[in-house]
Amino acid sequence: MNQPKNIVQKIWDEHLVAQQPDSPALLYIDRQLIHEVTSPQAFTGLRQRGLQVRRPDRTTATVDHALPTLPSPDGTLAGRLALADELSQKQIAQLETNTQEFGIQCYGPASDRNGIVHVIGPELGLTQPGMTIVCGDSHTSTHGAFGALAFGIGTSEVEHVLATQCLLQRQPKTCKVEVVGKPGKGVSAKDIILALIAKIGVAGGVGYVLEYCGEAIRALNMDERMTVCNMSIEAGARAGLIAPDEVTFAYLADCPLAPKGAEWDAALEKWKQLPSDPDASYDRVVTLDISNLEPMITFGTNPGMGMPITASVPFPSDYSDESQKAALEKALAYMDLQPGAPLLGHAVDVVFIGSCTNSRMTDLRQAAQVMRGRKVAKGVRVLVVPGSQPIKRQAEAEGLDKVFLEAGAEWREAGCSMCIAMNGDQIEPGQYAVSTSNRNFEGRQGKGGRTLLASPWTAAAAAVTGVVADVRTMLDD
Amino acid sequence: MQPLTKLNSRVVALPLNDIDTDQIIPARFLKVTDKADLAANLFADWRFTADGSPRPDFVLNQPQSRGAQILFAGNNFGCGSSREHAPWALTGFGFRVVVATSFGDIFRNNALKNGLLPVRVDADTHQKMREVLEENPQGEWSLDLEAQSLSLPGGLTVHFDVDPFSKTCLMRGTDELGYLLSFMDQILAYEQAHGKQVGA
Fold it and tell me: Residue A323: its chain B contacts at CB < 8 A?
């Protein structure tokens, strides 16, 4: 009998092209996604070596990081692009040139399918179970929600895949993350992943691929599964994945570029073989019980510095490790927060609902659930940024744009927006933002800005109260 | 890529945990389409005040950092974003070696492709190295990549692991793409065998 394998081992074995002694393996890459910020130097490298893009059919581009999300002042695309600074305009134009020259499909700003790379890949059906998927972006782990082995790479590796459709890789260790229990009211996928990162730490997953399983994971829809897998990298894991099931297949059936007809039937047969064998082993197992989980919020300057919304900021003296103590002191100084103080009731300047973590329909519906019939608190700036143009249209068809606009929020075009603060959307020095994005690093959302990571529900609660609030008191039972 | 075999250098001490790539090079400097000039903004928000003048208390602005090729960091160095601009900024500044108790996976890969050696040491060794550095902040450390060792003033010699493939690439200054391209026959055969060839 064959050795039982987990899903990561199955995908690895299926994509192994060659393995020399004392050298990393050649791993075949089924799909590469590229964007404007981390690809220009890769194309320059190809040209310098006189190489072609080997498989443009396995490469797809979008523009998201540097693209302004403000609506065009005159309704034209040129008007919107003119909102970008000169360097960004050049970067965006260069991606268009590169993709045209090398024959790569680009869902650029002119496309009605434009959006954040980790939103449009799944939406188009480019992301499929069992695939290896890479992108020059650490949140590529998002695509693991479909049972793909998906991870972020640097620009040199982008060039490697463009040139050969392969990467040099060492087989990752595997960690099974069993999430048990049923979430209470107001507790979302974002809270699950923030709780996991708080538990294992921002370096807890280094060297591992995380496989999320357990009843609480099975109960999530695809949007929610993407939120969980998206933040695997914030625990240090390059990839996180969830074995495909009927929820996955139902989502894919409607995607334009997913297999159709007889190809669908054949694909489905293969996908059903992917889940880990019952006796498969892992290098590590972690269990998270969410039965009593509260909505989570971060207080510090990395995503592991998170706590239940009703908790108080920890004391440096709570830590025995000197370097952890120093890290917390530094973080609290930057955040201007006092140890022992609650975050509930803390004033907020900005609320950002968007990013590859939380900009999909489930997220926007949850935010709208809180904001419907309420007003944005005085002095608070609220941005709601859909992850893609199709999501924008769907939200508008459901009237969610009206909910946000009537509350006093800004309703934007699709893009990375305030998650990365390189496209005009950013917070000011000293401001506090409750953000549904994935990183609360110093300056991440704007130099000197202070980020509190939370779910769309919690962000919407902050938007309408002007303070960090417990959304559970605002949701119907 | 410049070969890396041996070097003697002073050391920049930045022994903080979880230094993320947004600190190494903030996102607003990623609008470039080449690799030049990133070093000017290495650790920009720690290194400069709001008006752009150097903060005298930040280590990179202090005289002993000038020309230093070794960076001594804490745990989980280079976590966060996949931006290769981080190793580009570090090597542009002159660094060839980063010492830490662990590294972000993507950063580590990116560093090795740019002639920047990530030296991973255990916590006890890290502490001993830190003590040497505190006693002798101006002292030079010696790297011998062939021997996989770092020699510190006062006699402490630290041996570290580096996989044979990365070591060869670093010592020869070769990059991985040439190696990958040499497998083109196997790649084509893999595609045929798995129904992944063009038009399949």
Answer: 15-17, 74-75
Q: What is the pLDDT of residue A476?
A: 86
Write the CA distances from A137 to A29, A169, B106, integer angstroms: 15, 17, 10
Q: Please, what's the largest Cα pairwise distance for chain B?
A: 65
**Which pLDDT score is estimated for B1?**
83
This prediction has a pTM of 0.98
How many Å separate Cα A256 from the centre of its chain?
A: 22
Is residue B72 within 8 A of residue B11, CB to CB? The reply is yes
Quickly count: other Cβ atoms within 10 Å of residue A411's Cβ.
21
The one-letter code for the residue type at A97 is T
Q: pLDDT grade, residue B200 (50/70/90)?
A: confident
Measuring CA to CA, which residue among A111, A167, A110 is closest to residue A136? A167
Long-range pairs of A248-253 with CB within 8 A, sequence gap ≥ 24: A248/A129, A248/A145, A248/A146, A248/A147, A248/A222, A251/A122, A251/A146, A251/A222, A252/A125, A252/A128, A252/A129, A252/A146
Chain B CB contacts of A38 under 8 Å are 30, 82-84
SS3 label, residue A451: strand
**Minimum Cα–Cα distance from A95: chain B residue:** B33
Chain B residue numbers with beta carbons less than 8 Å from the beta carbon of A27 are none
- The whole-angstrom separation of Cα A286 and Cα B81 is 24
- Per CB-CB distance under 8 Å, the chain B contacts of A137 are 81-82
> Could you give the 3-state DSSP secondary structure of residue A161?
helix
Residue found by looking up tokens 């590469």 in the block? A32
Residue B51: count other Cβ atoms within 10 Å of its Cβ: 5
Q: Do B82 and A40 touch (CB under 8 A)?
A: no
- Which SS3 state, helix, strand or coil, does residue B48 take? strand
For range A146-175, the mean pLDDT = 98
Which residues of A205-364 form beta strands (DSSP E)? 208-213, 239-241, 284-289, 296-298, 306-308, 350-353
CA–CA min distance B55, chain A (Å): 15
Task: Give pLDDT tens digits for A201-239.
Answer: 999 999 999 999 999 999 999 999 999 999 999 999 999
A1, pLDDT greater than 80: no
Q: What is the biggest distance separating any 2 CA atoms in chain A, rounded to whole angstroms?
A: 67
Give the confidence band of B130 by pLDDT, cuts at 50, 70, 90. Answer: very high
Distance set, CA B126 to CA A121, A272, B57, B100, B129 (Å):
42, 47, 23, 7, 5
Q: How far is CA A371 from CA A50, A353, A368, in A?
A: 54, 12, 5
The B6-9 sheet, strands edge to edge: B6-9, B141-144, B149-151, B157-159
Residue B139 per-residue DSSP state: P
CB contact under 8 A, A420 and B27: yes
Evaluate the CA torsion angle B165, B170, B171, B176 in order and state its sign: positive
pLDDT digits (tens, 9 = 90+) for A291-335: 999 999 999 999 999 999 999 999 999 998 888 999 999 999 999
Can you say whether the dihedral through the CA atoms of A181, A182, A185, A190 is positive or negative? Answer: positive
B16, B22, B198: residue with CB nearest A444: B22
Of A49, A207, A302, Cβ closest to residue B18: A302
